[in-house]
Each structure stands twice: as C-alpha cells, then as structure tokens.
Amino acid sequence: MGVAAHLGIKLAEYDARIRTFIPYYEEMLDVAGSALDPKVGTIVDLGIGTGALSARCRERAPNANFIGIDTDSEMLKAAAKRVPAARLICDTFERSEIPRCEAVVASFALHHVRTQKAKAALYRRFASAIRRGGQLINVDCQPATDAALSRQQFLAWKQHLQQSYDERQASDYLAAWSKEDVYIPLTSEIALMQEAGFRVEILWRRDAFAVLLGKRA
What we know:
7 strands; alpha/beta
C-alpha cells in the first residue's frame, strides 16, 4: 500500500494534508534539517515520500548526495521533483541495502517497523552503513512510557486533528493508525539506538513527538 492510500488521501493532497494530521510538522522538519552536519557527503532518506525532509537537509548541506528509499513509486516521482539529482530506490528500507553514508534520516517512517526486535536489527544495519562520527536523525511519534501521560499525549494529537476534522473523523484516524503503525515509547527508542552503538540526544520533544539525533561512535 502506498503512503497516501495508507493515510486515506490522494497523493496530490499529501503535502497539504500531512500537516493537518501531524502537529508541529514544519517545526520538526526544521529541527531535523538544522541538526545535520553541513559537510555531510551522502544522506540516505528512509521513506523519503515527497522529499520534504530531504529538501530541508539540502538547505543545510547543499553539496550532499541524496539517496531516497521508498516503496511508493508515485511518491518517488514527487521526491524527484523536489530533490533533483537524488538517487531514488523503490523498495522497503527494511529489505533494501542501506548504502554507505554519513547520515541516515527518517521522518514518520520507522514506526512502520512492526516489532522492537526488528527495529533493533534495523538500527544495527544503520550503524554498519553510517561512517564513524556520522548521524542518524529520526522524526517520529514516540510517546511516554507512563500510560496516563501517553493518553494525554494522544488526546493532544486528537485535538490537533479536530482543527481540521470532526471528532469522529479524528478518532477514526487515530484508531486506524494505531492498528497499522507501532509507536515505541521514547525511552525504548533511545535504548534501541544506544544498543546499536549510537550516542543519542533529544533535539526536540513535545507531546508524543520527538526528534532524535544519534551519533555513530
């Protein structure tokens, strides 16, 4: 299933609608892009989508080479327009080879990994692909471990959705995504990255969302 279909929208609507779905979307991409080493040589964008995160990274590192991986061929066409000269691979990042690089970036992509065991293995693959001193930057939903606080965080997400959709639609979206996506608590996400050999910093955190930076030791 393509990303637009997964979200229940048309591809042409994606860039506008994603902002109605995800709170602080622009702010998180800005933080992720600004954290990138401007001298980076090669950046691999996992689940590149329409190229929004890569475009931010290109502003920070205009001379970098970009490699984007995505299962959605239509999304890759959009990414090709936004990030000219990028090498685009139509495949799942869970199966595809991760090319040698100085940075791996991802925006709302890694929550598609179904288990923590699979994600731990994926982080080890990233660590093998990223050269020493390189970066792993991840933008995603990573809620609190505490159940009561997590419920508050998802209520805040629902309130964001209700700025564009009615209460039932907002509830339906969250219910559908909770079945299709896996939101690992922030503390667990950090532990998996550390176990793979990354030194982790929380660059940004609000409600259930975070931007994490892993430095390859």
